[in-house]
Amino acid sequence: MGTDDPVVIPHPPRWPVYDRAAADRAAELIRRGRSFDYDHGPEIAGLEAAFSRRHDGRHALTLNSGTSALLAAYFALGLGPGDEVIVPTFTFLATASPLFLLGAVPVLADSDGPDGTVSAASIERAVTPRTRAVAVTHLFGHPAPMDEITALCRRRGLALVEDCSHAHGSTYRGRPVGTFGDLAVFSIGGLKLVSGGMGGVLLARDSRHYDLACLLTAFKQRSERTVRDPRLRRLADVGLGGNLRISPPAAVLAQSHLDRIVELVAAKRANVHRLLEPLVARPGLTGPVIAPHVTMGGWYDVVVTVDPERAGFSRDDLVAALRRQGVKADVPATRPLHLSSVFTGAEPGHRHPYPPDVLARRFRHRRGDLPAAEALHDSWVSLPGPYFNDTAGALVEPYRAAFHAALDRLGAAGPPVPAAGGAR
Ligand SMILES: Cc1ncc(COP(=O)(O)O)c(C=O)c1O
């Protein structure tokens, strides 16, 4: 192999990884014909009870995805045509896209601060007389500033939905995320720290929201058991139009991660700290900025910020150099929504629900509209966080060696330079 050939680092299986007991339980369910459940069997009831216990006794409902859970949350709030919901621009598309189905209008708010989350100030700039609700995403596992956001929502009479999909196990002032909003949603699918392959969880403070979400999600067998309000329970025979249920095998797989969440969060924290050391020791590179009163749980994406002036190379140079050393580095896959198709003028759906003035105001974004989120996305290198959920940390040392090699090749091995105004 020539010295310029790309290096290959053997990667272990990517998350979600399951222990033997969890895989056996899922297989046993399949063998017993329990690959689905119209009712409220022990696997689903158990996962909901565990989420509820971890989140101040909130009403917990499992669904087939985080996207479905967001749809159910917005549906339960009664959002419909013309209602505006403030959504961070820096989030996964599903924080906004279920609103299209309801005819409600996502209004995008800029990031505020180094973690990429929204703040009360950035939300407030997006408020109009039509605003009914606010959604926040605890981006990449860093909690948004919930004190000021809950105060704003109270003051303005707005409902609050937390999207906790990146933030399993994260806390804000000692309280778990998911306990601040009227409703909270966790994806428990794909690469999330708690993952059943496909799945979502909705948490509701108000049992009426839970009841409406349940009627949207489940059929008679379950709704008759778990919908509390007798007037709403009467609707259980027909439901409210969705079939968004999780499967028992997915529930037991997710439960196996939830049962180990303390261990998984501790392992992830240790892995990420050790992983980032060689990078953040270099001038111009900084690791995630974590506020003193929060803890990071899920840590969905692990990002490093490149300041090209001080580093002497660009973000894209670093991505390319890391990739040559076998690191699965990239720009963050989660990118500001206002630069995506629907928000830059491609109409949302073949029969979109929005009148021309709404399309003109909310779906014709251009670069520069929400500059803080753009600047963060343009400066971040994403490392493949889900590989570091692995409690053995198998990739940490190979990646550290690759980081040293990449930085050496970029010629960034010199002594630190002063932050500003000094000689370079
Ligand atoms: C912030 C956020 N919200 C919602 C979702 C949607 O979850 P799901 O893929 O389970 O539908 C995701 C998925 O990646 C996400 O990252």
TrEMBL record:
Class of this enzyme: transferase
UniProt key word DNA-binding: no
Keywords (A to Z) from UniProt: Aminotransferase, Pyridoxal phosphate, Transferase
EC number(s) recorded for this UniProt protein: 2.6.1.-
Signal peptide region: none
UniProt entry tagged with the keyword DNA damage: no
Molecular function in Gene Ontology: transaminase activity
Sections of the chain in a coiled coil: none
Entry-linked InterPro entries: DegT/StrS_aminotransferase, PyrdxlP-dep_Trfase, PyrdxlP-dep_Trfase_major, PyrdxlP-dep_Trfase_small
Cofactors (names): pyridoxal 5'-phosphate
Family matches, as CDD domains: AHBA_syn (cd00616)
Gene3D superfamilies found in the cross-reference section: Aspartate Aminotransferase, domain 1, Type I PLP-dependent aspartate aminotransferase-like (Major domain)
PANTHER family: DTDP-4-AMINO-4,6-DIDEOXYGALACTOSE TRANSAMINASE, TRANSAMINASE
UniProt family annotation: Belongs to the DegT/DnrJ/EryC1 family.
The protein, known as: DegT/DnrJ/EryC1/StrS family aminotransferase
